[in-house]
Amino acid sequence: MEILHYTAFTDTPNGGNQAGVVLDATALDTAGMAAIATRLGYSESVFLTPRPDASYDVRYFSPAGEVSFCGHATIAAAVALADAVGAGLLNFHTAVGEIPLTTVEAGGLMRATLTSVDTQVTELSVELRAHLLRALCLTEDDLDPALPLLLSYAGNWHPIVPLATGSLLAALDYDFAALAQLMAEQEWGATVNLVSRITATSFEARNPFPPGGVREDAATGSAAASLGGYLRHLGELPLPAQVTVFQGHHMGRPSQLSVSIPATGGIGVSGTAVRFVP
Question: What amino acid positions are annotated as catalytic residues?
Fold first, then answer.
């Protein structure tokens, strides 16, 4: 068994979100996967078990435990497979459903695109909204008046928190313990997606990740997919649409995620990934 190290949504080892990748985890049980993820310390690691039909059963683990779905580790695993056997079509069977992928080589880099499960968007109660803002050390005045604070699902439930300015996003300093407790109570197992709109089709984002035992995620594919579902729900863009998310530069690991929003169905999230030596 070989543990590979990839960083996703970047073209350089110094950017993106790092993930451990095991392309054949047949010999590992749950405890073994969890132990590897904890030892590696990346926000997530991904474990693939080949199926007879050439698809893969896929599980994801953060240092704090198993995660239902992880976008950046999915991109990392798809690129690792493409590096090993060539570009093409893939199908990952995850806890949230089937995730089809395509991989292509362009300019000497492998690029992967995942298609999420279908999206859902819902409102937060007044009380829950207030608790979330307190944990994030924000007020109602910090929010973008043109975009609502909502919950969006594309494999994980992510609160989408649009901030009024990029400077507010840059100054983010949330209460880790309070946010961890709130997310555990609500069974939000992924990240909170704080965003600031740059243009009609581009955003910068920061993603606290207390459920994984990680203060911040450098690139969050499932949150980007949830943002796509959120924008579609609001009717913010003519469809189909392309949106770019910039993330990770606040923590020194710049990342770029491309989001494809069709009129219906799952959201596409794509990016390059590169192998590195830790």
Answer: 44
